[in-house]
Specification:
Strand content: 5-15%
Helix content: 55-70%
Number of strands: 4
Radius of gyration: 21 Å
Shape: globular
Structural class: mainly alpha
Strand order of the largest sheet: 1-4
Number of helices: 9
Length: about 180
């Protein structure tokens, strides 16, 4: 009897009419994102639980720094996703160190996590339409997009590194404005 109730419930959740109503209502999407974020913030009481929840996003964030730094000759010298306590008492979830930060690579290496946004966009555009429309797939999709978008935001330390070389900031600002005006 319990199995029958379970299977009826699962069938209801995978019914195309229910799924269409669920997918088309942005309220459920926002609710799901907030529940995921609340879950994440409740783990902050424990450094190790927090690290476990944050590892996938931290890994992506730091991989972006590492990849762009490697590509632009910043010479990445260390890579960690293990949390540690900083001098000010806060926790640092991960970091990448560089040996050759210069005016031309400081801004892109520091703001590299922003590259996760186009990845999320293309997942939304080219991956989501091929997923079977099930509630589990939708929740997985929202979970992955939440991780990508949240970890695309550069940290305070990232902005500090990006602003180290004023000539580099001006150069990339000029480049961005030029590209924008050409569109």
């Amino acid at each position: 009897m319990l199995f029958d109730a379970y299977y009826k419930f699962v069938d209801y959740l995978n019914d195309p009419r229910f799924l269409q109503a669920f997918f088309d209502n942005r309220f459920y999407l926002i609710l799901l994102v907030i529940v995921l974020m609340r879950f994440k913030y409740t783990t902050y009481r424990s450094m190790w639980m927090s690290a476990l929840v944050n590892v996938p996003g931290t890994l992506l964030h730091e991989l972006m720094h590492f990849s762009v730094g490697l590509l632009l000759n910043a010479h990445p010298c260390n890579f960690t996703i293990l949390p540690r306590k900083s001098l000010d008492g806060n926790y640092v979830m991960g970091s990448v160190g560089f040996r050759n930060i210069t005016f031309y690579n400081a801004v892109p290496a520091a703001l590299a996590p922003l590259l996760l946004l186009p990845i999320g966009f293309y997942l939304n555009r080219y991956f989501l339409p091929f997923l079977n429309p099930t509630l589990g797939n939708y929740i997985l999709y929202v979970f992955l997009q939440t991780i990508l978008i949240e970890n695309a935001v550069p940290s305070r330390a990232d902005f500090k590194v990006a602003g180290m070389y004023f000539t580099g900031v001006l150069m990339y600002l000029f480049l961005a404005i030029s590209l924008f005006l050409m569109l």
